[in-house]
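re: the backbone from monday

yeah here it is again, tokenized this time
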């Protein structure tokens, strides 16, 4: 049931919870701004001198579990030691005017590249505001080419939101080309990314290099997949790297269990983005990224392999909006009912397919309600998805035996405070 429950968690996240106090604390000497939720660490915006881009590091769930990979910042037993430039969560790209910002390694590491490396230098903290339920941070950075010239200015607002079992990061990024056009040549390497811990990877048998208990990189011939349970799901119903990589979708989730905690992580594209819906660079080894610029490199989403070569003209700006969502825990019966109702009013093939699976799941507490919603929606918003045909094939609907039944719907809302939807990001 991982696939439908991931979608239920997303629907629930747009619902309600009591707000928490979100506080930003600048530590100028450490070159970072800490984000605290009710006094406990959530993440930090860091711009350390030994890194080639600003980072959000680490990322934690509502229960405080870190779900981003520790390497190369720290040595954690059982973690992979590949791609040292994959650090927690970041925003950059693999080819801007012939310079590679994505693969640029941190100090102490080397990496071969066909094109020269660039770096993104934090310039200033422009504003900070803490508050109940959310906090906002405005920052500015420069994209520096290999020749030392500035190709882009990045002005960004990060909004950190928190409620029970829920954390959200909205990133509103404005890129301004300087005295020359900024050309994002098609590359699979980009743009907004998270590198997750081992348990959220997909199970794999491929030999790799991992950190041993003493903190040393060690070749492992056959992987131990104990506790490795990550599952990707896209808004278009694609599951795993095999189905989802290089496709286009409005959002994608990665669900699994981290240190005994059920977790669902989502990255959302925004309808206002010029490139919506984005392409996905989701790998089973733990790289989770949305890439709006790499069209030619993503054959499933772009079968013709037509190059995009996205360009921001000199002196012009382009704004991109993305949301990272982290939901903790399994849904209670009432939460499932709230999510189920939201799912019923989601017009997509994935939502309809999810409702069918829930109606068939004998262990699902609201199986009868799921079936009721299928009967209700099959003739209107979900008609184009052949829901009635699927229901007949799966044994959920027999017109000769159909009867009208009543079900309990949602209770009145209490003290719930809604969180903004992804479409409401400024």
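seq for it, each position gets an aa:
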């Amino acid at each position: 049931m991982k696939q439908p429950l991931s979608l239920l968690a997303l629907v629930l996240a747009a619902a309600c919870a009591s707000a928490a106090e979100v506080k930003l604390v600048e530590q100028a000497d450490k070159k970072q701004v800490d984000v605290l939720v009710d006094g406990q660490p959530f993440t930090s915006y860091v711009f350390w001198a030994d890194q080639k881009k600003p980072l959000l590091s680490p990322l934690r769930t509502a229960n405080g579990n870190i779900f981003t990979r520790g390497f190369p910042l720290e040595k954690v037993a059982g973690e992979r030691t590949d791609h040292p430039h994959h650090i927690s969560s970041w925003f950059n790209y693999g080819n801007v005017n012939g310079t590679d910002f994505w693969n640029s390694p941190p100090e102490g590491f080397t990496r071969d590249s066909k094109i020269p490396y660039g770096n993104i230098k934090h310039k200033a903290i422009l504003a900070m505001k803490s508050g109940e339920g959310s906090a906002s941070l405005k920052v500015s950075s420069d994209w520096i080419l290999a020749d030392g010239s500035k190709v882009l200015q990045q002005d960004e607002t990060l909004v950190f939101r928190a409620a029970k079992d829920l954390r959200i990061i909205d990133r509103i990024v404005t890129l301004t080309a300087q005295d020359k056009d900024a050309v994002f040549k098609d590359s699979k390497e980009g743009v907004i990314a998270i590198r997750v811990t081992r348990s959220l990877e997909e199970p794999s048998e491929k030999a790799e290099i991992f950190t041993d208990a003493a903190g040393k990189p060690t070749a492992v011939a056959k992987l131990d997949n104990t506790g490795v349970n990550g599952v990707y799901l896209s808004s278009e119903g694609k599951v795993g790297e095999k189905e989802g990589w290089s496709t286009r979708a409005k959002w994608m989730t990665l669900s699994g269990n981290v240190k005994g905690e059920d977790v669902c992580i989502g990255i959302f594209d925004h309808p206002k983005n010029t490139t919506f819906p984005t392409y996905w660079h989701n790998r089973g080894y733990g790289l989770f990224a949305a890439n709006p610029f790499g069209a030619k490199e993503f054959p499933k989403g772009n079968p013709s392999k037509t190059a995009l070569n996205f360009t921001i003209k000199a002196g012009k700006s382009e704004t991109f909006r993305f949301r990272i969502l982290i939901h903790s825990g399994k849904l209670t019966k009432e939460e499932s009912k709230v999510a189920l109702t939201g799912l019923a009013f989601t017009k997509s093939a994935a939502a309809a397919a999810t409702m069918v699976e829930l109606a068939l799941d004998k262990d699902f507490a609201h199986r009868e309600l799921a079936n009721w919603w299928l009967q209700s929606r099959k003739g209107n918003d979900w008609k184009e998805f052949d829901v009635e045909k699927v229901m007949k094939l799966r044994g959920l609907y027999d017109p000769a035996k159909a009867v009208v039944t009543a079900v309990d719907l949602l209770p009145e809302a209490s003290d719930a405070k809604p969180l903004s939807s992804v479409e409401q990001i400024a």
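The first strand starts at residue 16 and ends at 17. The chain has a mean pLDDT of 87.
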